[in-house]
Amino acid sequence: MLKPMTRFLCAALALAGALAAAACLPGRSSNRPPPARMPPASGEAGIGRAEAFAGGLVVQPFALLLTDFDATGDRRVTPAELEAGVAAAWRELDRDGDGSASALEFADWSRAAMGSDNTIPGRVAFDRDASGTISRSEFEAQIGQEFARLDADRNGVVERAEMVRLVEPGAAMRGGPGAGREVVRRRVAGPR
Ligand SMILES: [Ca+2]
Ligand SMILES: [Ca+2]
Ligand SMILES: [Ca+2]
Questions:
Q1: How many helices (DSSP H) and strands (DSSP E) are in the chain?
Q2: How far apart are CA 58 and CA 76, in angstroms?
Q3: Which ligand number lies closest to the CA of residue 136?
Q4: How far apart are CA 171 and CA 189, in angstroms?
Q5: For residue 93, how far is its CA from the centre of ligand 2 (angstroms)?
Q6: Separation of 161 CA from ligand 3 center, angstroms?
Q7: What gap in Å lies between CA 184 and CA 7, rounded to an integer?
Q8: 77: number of Cβ within 10 Å
Q9: What mean pLDDT is predicted for residues 158-170?
Q10: Distance, CA of 134 to CA of 39 (rounded, Å)
Q11: Which of 79, 107, 143, 152 has an alpha carbon within 20 to 30 A of 159's alpha carbon?
Q12: What percent of the chain has pLDDT over 90?
């Protein structure tokens, strides 16, 4: 509580001007806006924490792979670049050169090329005959299917605008390995 004299002084100052009076009010130092709310501590840069996604454009893991295929650097992946890119990717994937990609080979390659070993398409999608390994023809077929899916305007070329996808707000997002998996699954689960 303010002492009587202080209250009197404040009242007098209030007549002189609101700014001076504000300096007398306990607990209110000025008309300064409240301090900006700091973001919550996120630990390891948010890795592993589910966060509300504000919505926006996301890049799919497969699109990351396609950017590797863009040999000319014009940000478009042509059928010729696709063919050469698939051949190069297969050489990297089938590390021991035995003509098929094991689960371990796929996991290592997928992490390096698409950022995660838990992507869409994943190993199960590539292994079309469910043999447990991926043959070169299975690899080529799945890559071709994904390429065609991204080529929204069906001109045979995948451009950057076809590599991003709009995601609605509120979808769960996680950082780190497997990031965005929930979102992409929701989108891919739609019409194909
Ligand atoms: Ca192999
Ligand atoms: Ca197979
Ligand atoms: Ca296109």
A1: 8, 8
A2: 18
A3: 2
A4: 14
A5: 14
A6: 9
A7: 63
A8: 28
A9: 91
A10: 45
A11: 107
A12: 53
Starting from the CA of residue 104, give the closest ligand: 1
131 Cα to the center of ligand 1, angstroms: 13
33 pLDDT band (50/70/90 cuts)? Answer: low
Q: Which one of the ligands is nearest to 103 CA?
A: 1
Q: What DSSP state is assigned to residue 160?
A: G
Taking the C-alpha atoms of residue 106 and residue 100, their distance in angstroms, rounded to an integer, is 10
Residue 181 one-letter amino acid: R
Q: Which segment of 16-20, 32-36, 130-134 scores lowest on mean pLDDT?
A: 16-20
Query: Can you read off the two tokens belonging to residue 77?
Result: 């992946």
pTM of the model: 0.63
The contacts of residue 84 (CB under 8 Å, 6+ apart) are 69, 71
- Cα(23) to centroid of ligand 2, in Å? 77
In angstroms, the CA 181 to CA 186 distance is: 9
The Cα 77–Cα 181 span in angstroms is 24
Q: How many whole angstroms from 134 Cα to the centroid of ligand 3?
A: 27
Q: Which ligand is nearest to the CA of 160?
A: 3
Counting ligands in written order, which one lies closest to the CA of residue 99? 1
Tell me what the mean pLDDT of segment 71-96 comes to.
Answer: 98
Ligand 3 centroid to 66 CA: how many Å? 13
Q: Where are the alpha helices (DSSP H) in 17-153?
A: 18-22, 61-69, 79-93, 103-114, 123-126, 136-150
